[in-house]
Amino acid sequence: MLAALLFATLAIVFPVPAHAAPSPSAETGQTKAIDDCLSANNVWVFVITDDQKVLSNQCVDSPSTGADALKKAGITVGKNKSSLICTMNNHPETCPKTFNGQYWAYYHASGAGAAWDYSEKGADQYKPAPGSIEGWCYNKPKTKSCTPPKLAAGSADGASFQLTGDNTKKTQNADTSSDNGSKSGPVATIVVIAVVAIALIVALVVRRRRQS
């Protein structure tokens, strides 16, 4: 009977793991894959700074112009006296008073993995083709130009590029705390098992002595 009790205790402490279904909120929170976006005749918007910070990497629905695509992607722009975009999401914080060689370069790509074509029109005049990619990059100091990296189809979040900002940091912190909790769990379980096992063994020894 004591042996059966021991096995029952083990079963309670170490239950058979169940395969949990994916969380609906986790699925809906994922960024739409590039190939799905383009197949639906939408437009993918990718914006990267000179220090490799990704300001936008997402799908937008039927933008009327390149400027509208940026707006739908959550990008706030600032323009100079020539009506050219000179800052995006405060990068740089203000438009340079005089041209310093750095600027936001505007590109288009016909699809995932396709070569970038430098735009011959401004964002207010260009109409993105359905199923295409809009790309922006800010060139580094003392460089003449920049080109966005190619984006591969089939990968959520545009290959390995991740959005930067407070939301990313909060997610990383949450993952870290979750890992710490999972590490401390097994240790506590082992301690409980040891205590229960010792108690059962002592009870078994006492019972046999009484029977003898």
Number of helices: 5
User: What is the overall shape?
Assistant: elongated
Provide the succession of SSEs. HHHEEHEEEEEH
The CA-CA distance between the termini, in Å, is 18 Å
Binned strand content:
15-25%
> Could you name the CATH topology of the domain at 27-138?
Ferric Hydroxamate Uptake Protein, Chain A, domain 1
Tell me what you see in this structure.
Helix content is about 35%, strand content about 15%. By secondary structure, the protein is of the alpha+beta class. The chain has a domain of about 110 residues: Ferric Hydroxamate Uptake Protein, Chain A, domain 1. Helix 1 runs antiparallel to helix 5. The longest helix is centred in the C-terminal third of the chain and has 46 residues. The chain is elongated, with a radius of gyration of 29 Å. The two termini are about 20 Å apart.
